[in-house]
Amino acid sequence: MPCLVSGMRLPLEGTLLEKLRKIEALHAGTKVDGEREAARRAAERIRARLAELRGRERETVYRYSLRDPWKRKLFVALCRRYGLTPYREYGQRHSTVNVRAPETFQNKTLWPEYLALSEELDAHLEELTERVIREAINDDVSEPTESDDQKALAERSDDAALDHGPSRT
């Protein structure tokens, strides 16, 4: 569902969509720059590569542990885009996603593309979060400063730990 503000897409969202399509095109080995059509053709090429690998290699089940719900949604959507069926065994954690596919596809296409898309999504969410906080709450979005008192205490604690043997916490 597109992110809407007064019925309009956020400018950042359009940029993110374009970047995600380019990442997919890169992983499909295409050099075509026509956004939506290039993304569609890239997905087709990747699905064709998967079909070819399925004919040559035995499929392997990989277990992925994706604790971040947004990254898990991204990974599951990417799997489904290529016709894979992500699943979870009864009793597995909610963060676990299993995928059955040729090992080469998982190691050379699916996981690297996921990492690239995830990195781009993280950067986008960071930028969007900072902008929203800056505009709606406070201009200062920097991390809190460290107290000199606490820093000195931590340094003494570190020094003490170096001078003594094991201790209980």
Write up this protein:
61% of the residues lie in helices and 11% in strands. It is built from 5 helices and 4 strands. The chain is extended. The chain starts with a strand and ends in a 6-residue tail after the last helix.
Give a brief description:
This protein is mainly α and 169 residues long. The chain contains five helices and four strands; from the N terminus they run ββααβαβαα. It is extended, with a radius of gyration of 22 Å.
List the helices and strands and how they pair.
Layout: E1 4-5, E2 8-9, H1 11-28, H2 35-56, E3 59-65, H3 69-81, E4 96-102, H4 103-136, H5 148-163
Antiparallel strand pairs: 1-2, 3-4
The structural domain count equals: 1
Alpha-beta classification: mainly alpha
Query: Main beta sheet, described?
Result: 2 strands, antiparallel
Averaging pLDDT over every residue, what do you get?
Answer: 75
| Helix share bin | 55-70%
How many DSSP helices? Answer: 5
Helix-strand topology string: EEHHEHEHH
Uncertain runs: 1-10, 160-169
